[in-house]
Amino acid sequence: MAAETQRTPFVLPGDRIDHSLIPSNPKKALRLGPGLRHIPPNELVPTVAGQLVTDWRKNSIWVEYNGGRYIPSQGDLVIGTVQKTSGDYLYVSLGDYTSNALLPSLAFESASKKMRPNLAPGQLVYARVSLANRHMDPELECVSPATGKADGLGPLGNSTNTGGAGAGMGMGMVYGVSLGMARRLLMRRSAEEGGVVVLEELGAAGLAFETAVGRNGRIWVNSESTKTVLAVGRAVQETDEKNLSVEQQKKLVRKLAKEIS
């Protein structure tokens, strides 16, 4: 039986992808992630340079890469910043993406025409991309269409700023990470998968915190301790920027834990 997740050698834009590498679960539609383009009838072509990754369980395939601008894809979890409210929509910035995403005011748990969330400009939200089309602004949701529950989505604390080096004090801070790091944090099912153990090691060291990861290259860190928020953000960014191995991540965590103890 093939492994659930398989990583293959690097691909370049325009390369032909062997059909044996493409998942073919007859019970699920094939999901194309970032970095791939479908050429009818059945060809997949990389649009970026990176590592081709297939998830046989989810019947999905994508190209793992760090650079470039985030392009919304249906189903992505993202961290956005509310820019303004107009009518039935909130306009949300996803960072480097040029157009704002639309978040319907009714796309929240228990929201109704009489009871809508009151989110001010600068408010952070954790949302899912519900609609992505190259000819339209993406649309977001903060509720599961299947259960009607938030399932962890919605406003994130009281932090109002975002930035590549980390910004916004109070209920949390948002840090910028590479798109590849964001995908690794979101798609792993265990600490060892993807070679990212830094968050689990920080927790094992006694740091109490919570996180939310956005596919658009953002991670929100919240804790009652400002030192903990700073330490977690620093650890994740350093792991990303220096491409630290598992052992190097553990060493970094031990160092940070000593600094804040």
Automatic annotation (TrEMBL):
InterPro entries: Exosome_RNA_bind1/RRP40/RRP4, KH_dom_type_1, KH_dom_type_1_sf, NA-bd_OB-fold, RRP40_KH-I, Rrp40_N_euk, Rrp40_S1
GO CC, one annotated term: nuclear exosome (RNase complex)
UniProt feature coiled coil, ranges: none
Domain (K Homology): residue spans on this chain: 172-226
Residue ranges of every copy of the Exosome complex exonuclease Rrp40 N-terminal domain listed in the record: 30-69
Keyword field: Cytoplasm, Exosome, Nucleus, RNA-binding, rRNA processing
GO molecular function, one term: RNA binding
Keyword RNA-binding assigned: yes
Subcellular localization: Cytoplasm; Nucleus, Nucleolus
Gene3D superfamilies: 2.40.50.100, K Homology domain, type 1 (3.30.1370.10), Nucleic acid-binding proteins (2.40.50.140)
Protein name as annotated: Ribosomal RNA-processing protein 40
Family: Belongs to the RRP40 family.
Biological processes per GO annotation: CUT catabolic process; exonucleolytic trimming to generate mature 3'-end of 5.8S rRNA from tricistronic rRNA transcript (SSU-rRNA, 5.8S rRNA, LSU-rRNA); nuclear polyadenylation-dependent rRNA catabolic process; poly(A)-dependent snoRNA 3'-end processing; TRAMP-dependent tRNA surveillance pathway; U4 snRNA 3'-end processing
Pfam family, one: Rrp40_N
Source organism phylogeny: Eukaryota, Fungi, Dikarya, Ascomycota, Pezizomycotina
Organism per entry: Monosporascus ibericus
